[in-house]
Specification:
two-stranded antiparallel sheet; 48 helices; five-stranded parallel β-sheet; mainly alpha; disordered N terminus; 7 strands
Length: 910
């Protein structure tokens, strides 16, 4: 894949779709309309880096400022290293940041000591880009994202979610299996292999001298991979290129590009190989700017550098940096080197660095052959410092290295225990689970026993979806950590308290509840409020949450993020958009909680076009090993299905999550599934069935203390009771809710209580009760619940031949259509027809189901409707099966269906 030499920003061969998309993003930012994000994803050598180079040149011609960061395998454990690459230059030029923001970035970059929260770093980075974008739009390029350190990746994901606020274009490139971009909400653009005509054109441009037989063989071997098309002919002798000599049985590339480069490296002199290895292993911003090269290379190496450039494997750029021709060259250089050569290179790279420089320690650790207690101690300290600065995942790697270098078995276990906890916080849950299993076979020192118990519970809850160890281990952990004079292990008590609270709310284990109550006084106000929210919220709990969150600094909020988000979930209280406040925190451990909060908030607030996000988040959680999160995301998706009255879809989700929830005794999930089945029954007017479901959870007239979502059932239960003629039970439940203060818990609870009162009211007071419900402050925030109330009101008015029925029903119908709640919309239509309304299509409603789909979604949906599997569709459209599945997850809710079997009917335009 090459560009036209006369115009460096002309379209690349076979990349019209990608370059048009990138150009549109630049134009949008150039017009100051809004920013955007493009994530390029594909196999090695497919041309992602070439596309980044193309868009960089196009952006510079348009006057953009360009920032760049490149991930490197050797730098994955260097916290905020990629962020440093991207933002160091604008940070030196900016004078607009507050002292707090500059301190956050300086601390993250190691310029000064300190422990900024992930939120503070993300917010400071956003402010820095906003300052840079005042003079010109900004392009941020992120290459090789699969090798970007976790801390930087989380901040980049935060910036991606906020890119629309600025004239900022972020373009990332990652391998198909790269985890670093999985937190991005943007859908990836799959960069595929070139089609045969495009591949032939590229080969002809790059190697016009090839004979026809050689050209055909190269085309077949390269299989459309642009890098292979460029590099394969270079491996052939001149006579083979001309067709004068036969080609080898198998061309050098095979299926692994690294092998091709490795063979070229075999022909290098030792001096060339040594310098290439130094460049491949160099880490950090100073090394990226060429400092390492000046430190280790003398005048005699100039000839070696010239040979490297002449061979085409790497070059020296204007900044004095050794730039590899392709990332795979760097990988091949490291893979081809012997263990002793790698250790020697690490020693050479460590020597010019200051003794306390973290990069020196990394190189010394990589060069070490035997245990070294002093080096292990220094690694331990640096790892803990990284953790305090938000680099938990990278700190965990250093602690593991320190453990391997420890001379004492006790020190080794201590460091592995800390590594397990830090890995969990940094989103490396599979690693935590593996370390916990490794530590179970060891004797854990008494001073870190609480830490090990916490790590074990973390792995059990999040990875194994098992809560037995929570009630068995965490009460003793809390007893020990809160004893007078005890080592708090970095504030572990608050985290252990939250994990125990999570287990209690999921399982309703009485031992867990008692331990939580016993330690209520030993935790923060956020911990006490969370316990109150899930046990006996009382009046004004939502107000207390809002006041608490508003009164916190960013650092305090970051430390209490899980507790605040879980409290908001208990109260159906999205006020303040807490999830946005915490969306820049480092590590998937927090990002997963943020995503869960947003999924549930989107359901409550009627953002049902976001339903498919739940399924995408579930896949990401499963891939990262957070299986409990995956279950909860599917559980939240079930809410959308139930709201739409989709019985088949709800049954499918139920079958997927019920076995695990039953095994784990997750009463919370099981009861919510019962509630959702009752909601579906309401949608289909099976009121007896609905009433039975709701009574399984909370009998009419009885509202014991407990989770507030039981209070939120008042509208559902009363509706089912009234429609089954159980008026006395409906009134008794309203009185029980009144006595329990249900309406005072939060805004949504106030509305649901008022709606229940209206539905159960006698005729002479019903109209006033409906108007009172509409007048509840914030009633419009709950569009689905409000539309259900309007349907009930319109039906009541029509049956009594009172005016206004059609107007109320039309509004409800409009909302149900927007939510794609087809069953509820149909009920409105039936009522409207009975009232003499023809039910004309809504002006903003789609003319047919297909109009709601993008072109790609429509193509995939039509193929799926014919019975093709995801793999077969992917082969036809040159997409991965996973990408096909992601599109279908978006198609189903748009068409108001949940299964492939319904696609043909939904797409039938007659």
């Amino acid at each position: 894949m090459v560009e036209d030499r006369q115009d460096p920003v002309q379209a690349l061969v076979g990349r019209k779709r990608e370059t048009e998309l990138l150009t549109a993003a630049l134009v949008q930012a150039e017009d100051r309309a809004s920013g955007s994000t493009v994530l390029l994803r594909g196999d090695p050598g497919v041309g992602k880096s070439t596309l980044l180079g193309w868009v960089e040149r196009a952006a510079r011609e348009r006057g953009f400022g360009v920032l760049r960061a490149v991930g490197a395998e050797a730098e994955t454990d260097f916290a905020f290293g990629a962020l440093h690459q991207a933002l160091w230059s604008p940070l030196q030029l900016s004078g607009a940041l507050s002292a707090h923001q500059r301190d956050a970035l300086d601390s993250a970059f190691g310029v000064r000591s300190g422990a900024p929260s992930g939120f503070a770093v993300g917010a400071a980075a956003l402010a820095l880009l906003a300052d840079a974008a005042r003079t010109a739009p900004v392009l941020l390029l992120l290459d090789d994202m699969h090798w970007i350190d976790s801390s930087s990746a989380t901040v980049f994901a935060f910036l991606q979610r906020r890119s629309a606020e600025l004239p900022l274009v972020i373009v990332g490139a990652s391998r198909a299996d790269g985890p670093s971009a999985q937190a991005w909400s943007a859908e990836a653009v799959e960069v595929r292999a070139l089609a045969q005509p495009e591949a032939a054109l590229l080969l002809a441009r790059c190697h016009p001298e090839l004979a026809a037989t050689t050209r055909d063989r190269v085309l077949a071997e390269a299989a459309g991979n642009p890098l292979a098309l460029v590099e394969l002919p270079r491996q052939l002798a001149a006579a083979q290129q001309r067709g004068a000599e036969p080609l080898p049985e198998r061309l050098p590339l095979g299926r692994k590009l690294e092998q091709m480069f490795a063979e070229r490296l075999d022909a290098m002199t030792p001096e060339v190989g040594h310098l290439l290895l130094l460049g491949a292993l160099a880490t950090g911003s100073d090394f990226s700017s060429g400092v390492w090269l000046r430190a280790v290379a003398d005048e005699e190496d100039r000839e070696t550098l010239d040979r490297i450039e002449a061979d085409g494997l790497a070059r020296i750029d204007e900044a004095g940096q050794l730039v590899f021709r392709h990332p795979l060259v760097r990988t091949a250089v490291v893979a081809a080197a012997s263990d002793s050569a790698r250790r020697e290179a690490h020693r050479a790279l460590a020597e010019p660095l200051a003794p306390d420089d973290p990069r020196r320690l990394l190189h010394e650790a990589a060069a070490a052959l035997l245990p070294d207690q002093d080096l292990a101690h220094r690694l331990h300290e640096v790892g803990r410092d990284l953790s305090r600065c938000g680099g938990d995942a990278e700190g965990a790697l250093l602690l593991e290295r320190a453990a391997a270098l420890s001379t004492s078995s006790c020190d080794r276990v201590r460091r592995l225990t800390w590594a397990a906890v830090m890995a969990a916080r940094g989103g490396q849950l599979r690693r935590t689970a593996a370390l916990v299993e490794q530590l179970r076979a060891s004797t854990v020192p008494e001073d870190v026993a609480p830490l090990f118990a916490y790590a074990a519970v973390y792995a059990d809850q999040s990875h194994h979806v098992d809560f037995e160890s929570s009630a068995a281990l965490l009460p003793a952990v809390l007893d020990r950590l809160t004893a007078p004079g005890a080592d708090t292990l970095g504030g572990l008590a608050e985290q252990a308290y939250f994990k125990l609270l999570l287990a209690a709310t999921y399982t309703d284990d009485p031992w867990a509840w008692r331990a939580l109550e016993r330690h209520r006084k030993n935790v923060s106000e956020a911990g006490r409020l969370c316990l109150r929210a899930w046990t006996d919220p009382g009046a004004h709990a939502a107000d207390a949450l809002r006041a608490l969150a508003d009164g916190m600094t960013e650092e305090q909020g970051a430390g209490s993020a899980w507790l605040l988000l879980w409290t908001a979930s208990a109260l159906d209280c999205p006020e303040g958009d807490l999830w946005q406040r915490f969306s820049g925190l480092s590590g998937y451990a927090t990002q997963g909680s943020v995503a869960k909060a947003k999924c549930y908030q989107d359901f409550l607030l009627g953002h049902w076009d976001q339903a498919a996000v739940c399924l995408r988040e579930a896949e990401i959680a499963d891939e990262l090993g957070y299986h409990c999160n995956a279950l909860m995301f599917r559980h939240y998706y079930a809410h959308y299905l139930a709201g739409r009255g989709d019985e088949a879809g709800l049954r499918e989700i139920d079958q997927a999550i019920r076995p695990t929830a039953t095994r784990a005794r997750m009463r919370y999930v099981l009861d919510r599934l019962t509630q959702l089945h009752g909601l579906v029954a309401l949608a289909h007017q099976r009121y007896e069935e609905a009433y039975a479901h709701f009574c399984e959870i909370t009998p009419p007239g009885h509202l014991p203390s407990g989770p507030p979502w039981h209070h939120a059932l008042v509208f559902d239960l009363v509706t089912a009771a009234v429609h089954t003629g159980r008026h006395a039970q409906a009134r008794s439940h309203i009185e029980a809710a009144r006595a329990a203060g249900s309406a005072e818990i939060s805004g949504r609870h106030a509305f649901l209580f008022a709606a229940a009162v209206a539905v159960a009211a006698e005729d002479d007071g019903a109209e006033a009760a409906y108007q009172a419900a509409y007048a509840v402050p914030g009633a419009e925030r709950w569009p689905f619940d409000l539309a259900r109330l309007r349907l009930a009101h319109g039906s009541w008015l029509r049956r009594r031949h009172r005016p206004g029925a059609r107007e109320v029903l039309r509004v409800a119908h409009h909302v149900f259509r927007r939510l794609r709640a087809a069953v509820w919309a149909q009920r409105c239509e039936e009522e409207l027809r009975a009232a003499g309304d023809a039910v004309a299509p809504l002006p903003d409603g789609p003319a047919d189901p297909q109009s709601a789909l993008t072109g790609q979604e429509l193509r995939i949906a039509r193929l799926a409707a014919t019975g093709l599997t995801n793999k077969e569709i992917g082969q036809r459209l040159q997409l991965s099966p996973r990408t096909v599945a992601a599109h279908l997850y978006k198609v189903f809710p748009k068409l108001g269906i949940t299964s492939r079997a319904a696609l043909a009917r939904a797409l039938d335009t007659r």
